[in-house]
Amino acid sequence: MPKRNDIQKILVIGSGPIVIGQACEFDYSGTQACNALREEGYTVILINSNPATIMTDPEFSDRTYIEPLNVEAVEKIIERERPDALLPTLGGQTSLNLAVDLSKKGILEKYKVELIGAKLDTIEVAEDRELFRNAMKEIGMNVPEGGCVHTLEEAEVLQERIGFPLIIRPAFTLGGIGGSVVYNREEYAQAIQWGLSASPVTEVLVEQSVLGWKEYELEIMRDGADNFVIVCSIENLDPMGIHTGDSVTVAPAQTLTDTEYQALRDAAKKITTRVGVETGGANIQFAVNPENGEMVVIEMNPRVSRSSALASKATGFPIAKIAAKLAAGYRLDEITNDITRQTPACFEPTIDYVVVKIPRWDFEKFPGNDRRLTSQMKSVGEAMGIGRTFKEALGKTLRSLENGWSGFHANGMADYQELTREQLTDDLRFGTPDRLLKLWKAFSIGMTPEELFDITKIDMWFLQNLHQIYEFEVHIRDASKTPEGLTRDTLLRAKKLGFSDKHLGILTGRSELEVRKLRKSFGIVPSYKIVDTCAAEFESFTPYFYSTYDEENESIPSDKKKVIILGGGPNRIGQGIEFDYCCVHGILALKSLGIEAIMINCNPETVSTDYDTADKLYFEPLTYEDVLNIIELEKPEGIIIQFGGQPPLKLAIPLEQSGVPVWGTSPDSIDLAEDRDRFGALLNSLGIPAPQFGTARSIEEAMKVSERIGYPLMVRPSYVLGGRAMEIVYDQSGLKQYMTSAVTASEDHPVLLDRFLENAFEFDVDAICDGENTEICGIMQHIEEAGVHSGDSMAVMPPYLLSMSQQEDLKEYTRQLAKALNVKGLINIQYAIIFDTIYVLEVNPRASRTVPFVSKVTGTPFAKLAVEVMSGKSLAEIGYKFNDRLPYTAVKESVFPFDRFEKADIFLRPEMRSTGEVMGISNNFGASVFKAFQATNVSIPKKGTVFISVNEGDRRRMLPIAQEFDKLGWKIIATQGNAEFMKSRGLPVTPVLKISEGRPNIVDHIKNKEIDLIIKTPLGQRSRTDEYTIGWAAIKSRVAFITTLSAAEAILRGLRTYGRKPFEYRCLQEYYGK
Amino acid sequence: MNQPAKARLVLSDGKVFEGRSLGKTGSTVGEVVFNTAMTGYQEILTDPSYYFQIVTMTYPQIGNYGVNPTDFESRKIYASGFVIREYSPVVSNWQADRSLDEYLKHYGIVGISEIDTRALTRHLRDHGAQMGMITTEDAPVEALLARLQDSPKLVGRNIVQEVSSAEAFDWPLEPAQDDNTDADKDAGKELPYRVAVYDFGIKFSILRILHGLGCRLRVFPAHTPAEEVLAWKPDGIFLSNGPGDPEPVEKAVAAVRQLLGKKPIFGICLGIQILGLALGGKTSKLKFGHHGANHPVKHLPTGKVEITSQNHGFVVDIDSLPKDDIKITHINLNDGTLEGFKHKSLRAFAVQYHPESAPGPHDSHYLFKQFIEDMK
Hints:
The complex is a heterodimer of chains A (1074) and B (376). Helices cover 38% and strands 19% of the residues of chain A. Chain A has 1074 residues and is an alpha/beta fold. In chain A, strands 14-13-10-11-12-15-16 form a seven-stranded antiparallel sheet, with helices on both faces. A seven-stranded antiparallel sheet of chain A has the order 31-30-27-28-29-32-33. In chain A, β35, α34 (976-984) and β36 (989-991) form a beta-alpha-beta unit. In chain A, α21 (577-592) crosses α30. Chain B has 376 residues and is α/β, with parallel strands linked by helices. Chain B contains ten helices and 19 strands. Chain B has a ten-stranded mixed sheet, with helices on both faces. The model of chain B has no long low-confidence stretch (mean pLDDT 94). At the A-B interface, β11, α9 and α17 of A face α3, β15 and β16 of B.
């Protein structure tokens, strides 16, 4: 079957904002799919609300809609575009669920849109827990004892039959949201209620838990002719009980005999046929009893998933691309394997290395929450490492995590000194983000792999391998104390076991650089091997490499002019897809300049690590050691560090000191901008105002600074990402508390104190400079006042409250700063305006988080232009000029992971906590705000009930907002103080009880879904507990809430527009006038 | 930290890999081939088709699940040597009863670990499979090469006679001989089909599957004349897999020529080559053979692709078969070589790959059922 000619236009739905459980892997798969479909001559219409994605760049589809992913918007777009088909399997759970809704509402039928990739009944059988269980039983598969329930009563009946512990998994959800393992009745009732509210179809699966069983995943592909292949098997190091997205995973499976593996394969084939995955990829999860090999089916995703992105990177088999082609009618044997160029894609990759993935968490940002890992995913990113053995791959992945770890080693981890054996055992049993290092700790106090198996149920094979690394570490430490010291043989063996130079330095009392020198003096350098899908059976053409300490090197540097781009490493809050977007653009720009683009990165979710993106891809940790090894082999003309965010910046100065030519703005300028004292001096000399500031290396110093500049103060540690530990303190006691409990200030790590500007308007300016001339890329105005991290705030472009003269001043300051910092490339500056004075808050002379948004709004690829500038072109040659007259308005809104953290503070702060962003675009500010809000996946009706709760200081400003709601026909409810205040001003308000005042109180109303919108500003420390409870109730019941009055005002503008007439939906190509 | 003794792998073209001893110390000679299956080393080691071959596993972690009492394909290890990247002394599987190293030692097999198996694979891919020696001896390379030079080669030699059973035997084996036997559970089961099996080095999985489908099996030595086989009154003849070059296995080719048309015939691997030769076809040696569990094979009548287990260094030349009599049923999608054919008028068909897999995917079990149909 060749490709289908009866369809021409295909609608692709993306996955929306980055959230926990659904991250940039769907940009990777979506981009591949769009490319693959267009390659076949189809017209691609794309809808995705996330502007930071590569897939929403206008050149990747014919019609690109950055619009909310809801039925209303998609129907309008279908009506406009009349696609022949809808491909829903590449945009994660979001896209799949939306396709189900569209289908059930008859919209697809009405406009004659065919679902391709997965049919409705396939999706339902796979996603509906009950249908799936029945289907499995029908084909003779074992599933854990249990059933599906839709009410608490049903749940209780079921529980009495099957006992405890139980695992609870809601239907049609992502990342295990609403899922849990419960051990008693009390937990059970709560978990059921939460699960039911998390499931869009109010259905929860309750199953006997198979805690401790070995967990496997198979990534499969199937075409319309029933050809079936397994792309990859994945074994979880953490057994059943911890969400697979939160588990350390290993590919391929390590501890199954062929007979056992083939039994899983046979089962997968049967399941796929029964569920009816017709065309494309899917993944199936199994649990295997380590005692007797008994196997049960856990679940199936009839779509491309996070695991399939990992499997693609792990094997070199481009699942999403092939899935898209299969959906378009091709058969597997009609598609060629890109890597060998001669064999078909209808085969099962075989690999000759081991891949380890370790998740990355950001629990620090959500203090007070239990760090134990559960069946609900909480990690925000992941790193992958490739090595010839598990041990080597593990070492590489551990040092890829960008959290200061240098390998399987926990020496010097302050927290571990006081850890009792009991606590350690307890943490190990449940799993925590540092479980691996705690295993090291356990070995170091003499616990054996056998004991640890009893505690963790981690397979002995993994435990023994970890123990081998530990034992070798002891050997190295001992050997380095002997007269002959660290021998060549020991060092080589250590490298083969995945030890980093840094780790070896710690063990032998040397610096990383000294170990490097010693290693090189022994002639020990890594070799690079190709990821080729076929274990070298066929010649391969795809330049996808990993390092190892085996003999033969397969990476032969070309004699072309080449430049290396350093990627961003694992995603975490503040360091996400935006930086990968810049890297990908950097690659594209280098290629178009005829320069060989070499990418180094270790994040399997990204487009930059698609081997199709760069000319050469090194899937390697972003450490000094690993990066310099590649540089020494490739000898590039330059290296670009300004696109990847924090990880490359950290390396900038050491790499430059090693003689590496850094392209663009010099590392010293970047350092200058980060160094408060140097930067303050520069601002002074330029005469540009900035909030008064000071640096403190102790509490005493901090007090002195505060006396000089006064309160409130914005305080933070130096060199941090995403405003980590950044806070506003209002008085001496606040400062004291911050200095003692939040941070440890020291000589090397001073704390920065800035005068905090209250009620200031904040602006983000992105600009590009060629060393001489500077042009603005975009000016964004934040809707929230200064004090909310720029990564968390709503931003509007063009600004809505900026006079021409202020705009000119912003431009002028930006020019001066870019010039003074000798910027070659991009620069981002945050300004605050208060009473007509413009203050500089922060300067980042590099690509910032806002680059994709600004690029998308203006239709200008700024990261590409930056590379041209770095290559020596002037802005005049490039021909770029700032256009400050956009005929439309775009709004960026942030998305938060509060639904994963029960004790999350829902009020926005200087510390960034959002995981992703969405964009609303239209001709009208109100509509753009409202669309952006809708795109965060909360719905606000035209009319409804609003709960207003503000502190006394906010009451006067709140009044016109409340009046407006009243005018729009909303019912207002409030607790006593606010209610009386509004009533006394003539507003009809329904009073409601506070939590402490009895029942039914506000939380009951929220849970009963009697409230559609919550406007709540912080009431202070004493109300904190109530606020957590209200916030958590709102999150669980999925009620929209707004925590600043400026955002409330913006939403009102949206509501006014929304009430008047339906929104219009246009694609970027139309906005750009192209 | 203690390491095993040093060992070397010397290829006949002079390439040397240094590593560590695995299994027995000493020296061994064979044709060096690579297998790309990620699981199934126990089945591979015990597959008689690997007789006189030194097998390199491209997957680097071997030994992880040890060795168990069921997953074997014959009564001993047939491979003459074993080459891996990293040996796992840790055995982690509920079925395992010993480690791979113990198993290799028990059967006196010399192996080597800690070598760059990918470099070796690439070398074999580019320069072809060749003779090689694994040794823990401290002799100079020249001396080892000279010994390699003098040792027997694979091509043109009838090694089937060295692995074929000396006497006919019935399947299933007694439990004492086969822990995985079906004898107990199938006691009293009806076995309506009598199948005579030519043993060129048969894998037990084939016998297990045929027996499971209702075949009473008698396994005959490779040199058994056709009359003797027919005297047992079989309903069908099965031509087994086996090692080495098919051309010198002349007696079997002659016997099959006689049996053609008399009884339904089904051949696997060496079996297809013997059948091909009996039909007047020619065989030739592949550069580095097919050894793995991921080869796509297209079934031409349906167009469906099967992922197959393969293990052969020789192949029937696709154009050498008599076109009027033979229908090509299967081809390899990687290199277009012949994977299966059937006779247009006589009940005889064969495949080059291993539908019994072990190790490998179970996509092709339908072929055994097809054989049963032929016997009905």
